[in-house]
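User: For a teaching handout, I'd like to show students what a predicted protein-ligand complex looks like in token form. I'll give you the sequence and the SMILES for pyridoxal-5'-phosphate. Please answer with just the structure.
Assistant: Understood, here is the input followed by the structure.
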Amino acid sequence: MDFFEDLIAERLGGKSFGKSTEIYKFEKIKRAKAEATSKYPDTPILDLGVGEPDIPADAAVVRALAEEAGKPENRWYSDNGILQFQEAAATYLEKVYQISDIDPKKNIIHGIGSKPVLAFLPICLINPGDVTLATTPGYGVTSTYTRYLGGSVYNMPLTKKNDFFPDFSAVPEDICRKAKILYINYPNNPTGQVATKEFFSSVVQFAKANKIAVIHDAAYAAVVFDGYKPLSFLSVDGAKDVGIEVHSLSKAFNMTGWRMAFVAGNEKIVSAYGTVKDNTDSGQFRAIQKAGIQALNHLEITDKTCERYSRRFDLLITALKEIGFEADKPKGTFYCYVPAPKGAGSDITFNNAEEASTFLIKNALISTVPWDDAGPFLRFSVTFNATGYEAEKRVIEELKVRLMKLDLKF
Ligand SMILES: Cc1ncc(COP(=O)(O)O)c(C=O)c1O
């Protein structure tokens, strides 16, 4: 008899834990990829599903880590982090987003990537019965932790009709009363939408009126192009009174595996986050924090990355449009989000985006990420593997040839 059945917490399903036969989206994609590669071993997968940069961190950042890693003074637990990193983060916010009222000691604490930060924040704010308002589709960590803590999640759909912004007027009054957290993310994964100052101001107003803490997930905030300037939630009047922003070095500096992020904004929330963090981890390795400072001091790393993504999007969007996709170039992130095709040839119908995505993998070895949370959409990422512009052009040409053969219906 396995007594662990009785030990697993209800938040993970209790006795039912591990027994669900439901297969999750990303597992389905993995299985479809494995099936396709074993059927067509000589055809490389065109992977436009990836959610992380295809190139490594900047050489000077790697050198900084190598130098710092061996220094005895960096060996200690760093707890809630080193002031030097907080100061560099404050300077970064000023240079990139023109925010000047951030005290590195009171308004900033680092995180071991933004994922755990987004998990810790509900621990600071959610009691059983409380509500988190979250945009959907979206990055679900804050919502998952809200549920773990006995709270519930009210999803605000991001639809084309609403220009991929949440409609606050559609949130029922009783939900607003119970809401403690508003989670937003711009530039948005997966829709690629970017925020405006007006939108952020409406967020501040809504949060003040309903006494809700705003968590702005700014993982892609600096990954922008085509004249759109990086925009911080904290740059609008009153934002610091109602919320915080979570910045990450993962996407802007090609440092996903390094695990470096920081939370900035409202002193009370930052301090509560510090308490949970202090009781959970012992801080990122100081050498990584110092390499992070090297990254934050070199904005040209992000500029180069954005130029690459922008030129890749120019190729990708043109190709998708030629096939019949309704595709617009986003102004931020490395994702474009397009309505999923409805079928292929004369006899295949897709009931949802997941079926369309699976069809693309199995029949053309093209990997995308499907989203069915607010209508059927596919997410194409420009972080596919290719070195140099000529190679990028070849990938997109090959993508077009493969898609053309499928005779997709829209
Ligand atoms: C919207 C969003 N937020 C946060 C993260 C987590 O980033 P990290 O934990 O690497 O900082 C991701 C990663 O894909 C993301 O897409």
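For the handout, you might add this sentence: The pocket of pyridoxal-5'-phosphate is lined by residues 51, 113-115, 139, 185, 189, 217, 219, 248, 250, 256, 261 (CB under 6 Å).
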